[in-house]
TrEMBL record:
InterPro entries per the UniProt record, alphabetical: Pirin, Pirin_C_dom, Pirin_N_dom, RmlC-like_jellyroll, RmlC_Cupin_sf
One matching Pfam family: Pirin
Entry protein name: Pirin family protein
Family the entry assigns: Belongs to the pirin family.
Ranges for domain Pirin C-terminal: 201-302
Residue ranges annotated for the Pirin N-terminal domain, each copy included: 61-139
CDD domains, A to Z: cupin_pirin_N
Coiled coil: none
Length: 333
């Protein structure tokens, strides 16, 4: 299309991705104040509880019955990267690990050989609204790493570098931006090898600003997701909000914002270039491996569910924290 742009496409639910990424979704929910159970202090009438993905009154319950979110469910063969810019997510898993993160924190979880986890969105404030802005990204694992042990780590927002430039900020969640390196990802991740040039950047550009996105070092796949703002211009090409832009990696990309600030997520990485066979929450290389995974899950439940409820949430009084499978607890204010 242009010197910088390969293609432009509308953002659906979920977003279209390129190898090594499998899936990306953006949740923006304007939840009301919470009730005593940390659910919405509002009627749930008219919602298809258990499968509520239609925005009604500005928010959704997803698979939650009383608290919004995603009760216990399994994964194998890939990683989830969960970015919570606003609000909070309560994590619990079959390894006995748990956490509450939000307001800029990121959780990086390697499902590997198999794990169950829940992701619930407790509405902690009873006196004001509880907005939630969350991205979840699925990053594939190569065949050699499909059965690595499950692992999760927290990238606390205090530890994630934010680069301030004239009229713009870049939050470096993964990869390297102008010699600023993100915190280390999970150890068995495709992103752990810098040669794969995996990058996840959350970019905010002020209104009426020219911003240059530096070129990649190698021939990676590269997509810029424009999720908030009005219009932007790249190489003279107008791009509307809620569109993705597949970029040529080996060229600087110069964009110009209009009369509103613009917000982006950039996903970049060397393709794994292996067969992908997906069945719901399982991603393997062959149908035979999918069948074996379903059998394994049926027999083992990937360790079972050690929590009282499938939609486990932590007490309202808990702050941001992570409890790891070995019992280590890290608390944040």
């Amino acid at each position: 299309m242009t010197d910088s742009i390969i293609s432009i496409f509308p953002l659906g639910f979920p977003w279209q991705t390129q190898d090594p990424f499998l899936f990306a979704v953006y949740h923006l929910d304007h939840y009301p104040k919470g009730n005593e159970e940390m659910g919405p202090d509002a009627s749930l009438e008219g919602r298809v509880l258990g499968n509520d993905f239609t925005i009604k009154d500005g928010w959704r319950m997803y698979h939650g019955q009383s608290i919004p979110g995603f009760p216990a469910h399994p994964h194998r063969g890939f990683e989830t990267i969960t970015i919570v810019n606003k609000g909070f997510c309560d994590h619990s898993d079959s390894l006995g690990a748990a956490g509450r993160f939000g307001e800029g924190d990121v959780q990086w979880m390697t499902a590997g050989s198999g794990v169950q986890h829940s992701e619930m969105f407790p509405l902690l404030h009873t006196d004001k609204d509880n907005p939630l802005e969350l991205f979840q990204i699925w990053l594939n694992l190569p065949k050699a790493s499909k059965y690595v042990p499950p692992h999760f780590k927290m990238l606390w927002h205090e530890e994630i570098p934010v680069i301030e430039e004239e009229g713009a900020t870049v939050k470096v969640i993964a990869g390297n931006y102008k010699n600023t390196t993100a915190p280390a990802p999970a150890p068995d991740s495709w992103a752990a090898d810098s040669a794969n040039e995996v990058a996840i950047w959350n970019i905010h550009v002020e209104a009426n600003t020219n911003f240059t996105l530096p070129q990649a070092l190698t021939e990676v796949s590269r997509t810029l997701y424009f999720y908030e703002g009005s219009n932007i211009e790249i190489d003279g090409q107008q791009v509307h909000i809620n569109h993705g832009i597949q970029l040529r990696p080996r060229t600087d990309v110069m964009l110009k914002t209009a009369d509103k600030s613009a917000h982006f997520i950039l996903l970049q990485g060397k393709p794994i270039a292996e067969p992908v066979v997906q069945h719901g929450p399982f991603v393997m290389n062959t149908q035979e491996e999918i069948r074996a995974t379903m059998k394994d899950y049926g027999l083992t439940q990937f360790g079972g569910w050690p929590w009282r409820y499938p939609d486990q949430v932590h007490s309202r009084e808990k702050g941001r924290f992570a409890k790891y499978p070995d019992g280590t607890v890290v608390e944040r204010e």
